[in-house]
Amino acid sequence: MSNGGCSDLETGSTFMPRYDAQGLMTGIAIDAESKEVLMIAFMNAEAVARTRETGLAHFHSRSRGRLWLKGETSGHFLRVQEILVDCDQDALVMLVKPEGPACHTGARSCFYRRLVGNRLEAVQN
């Protein structure tokens, strides 16, 4: 906040998720053991609710325009161990136990390349 004060949103104990104009927030999946960032996707209110109800990571697929359960076709589910909420309540970090690769390419993480100059190089795991 510009006045330096803190609101209930920032310091309170009530979950008050803030979605953007499209009804979305950022969801980040991190391996609960290794702390490796596995993937980042968008979540709407339905995805947040289903994730909390089932313990499996759900997202909103912008390309498909629908709810998406990570692993629904691959079987590579992300079992949510804990959900961290950022200070503005507009992003979630999910500490997960992955059941296989997180990336649709088959890579363990969607972040399998690094930017070096203007080139992408493979990250060695």
Automatic annotation (TrEMBL):
What is its biological role? Catalyzes the hydrolysis of the adenine ring of phosphoribosyl-AMP.
Where in this chain does the record put each Phosphoribosyl-AMP cyclohydrolase domain? Answer: 39-112
Provide the cofactor list for this protein.
Mg(2+); Zn(2+)
Report residues binding Mg(2+): D86, D88, D90
Q: Does the keyword tRNA processing apply?
A: no
Pathway listed for it?
Amino-acid biosynthesis; L-histidine biosynthesis; L-histidine from 5-phospho-alpha-D-ribose 1-diphosphate: step 3/9
Name the reaction it catalyses: 1-(5-phospho-beta-D-ribosyl)-5'-AMP + H2O = 1-(5-phospho-beta-D-ribosyl)-5-[(5-phospho-beta-D-ribosylamino)methylideneamino]imidazole-4-carboxamide
Q: What is the lineage of its organism?
A: Bacteria, Pseudomonadati, Pseudomonadota, Alphaproteobacteria, Sphingomonadales
Subcellular location per the Swiss-Prot or TrEMBL entry: Cytoplasm
- The identity of this protein, by name, is Phosphoribosyl-AMP cyclohydrolase
What is the organism of origin for this protein?
Answer: Novosphingobium kalidii
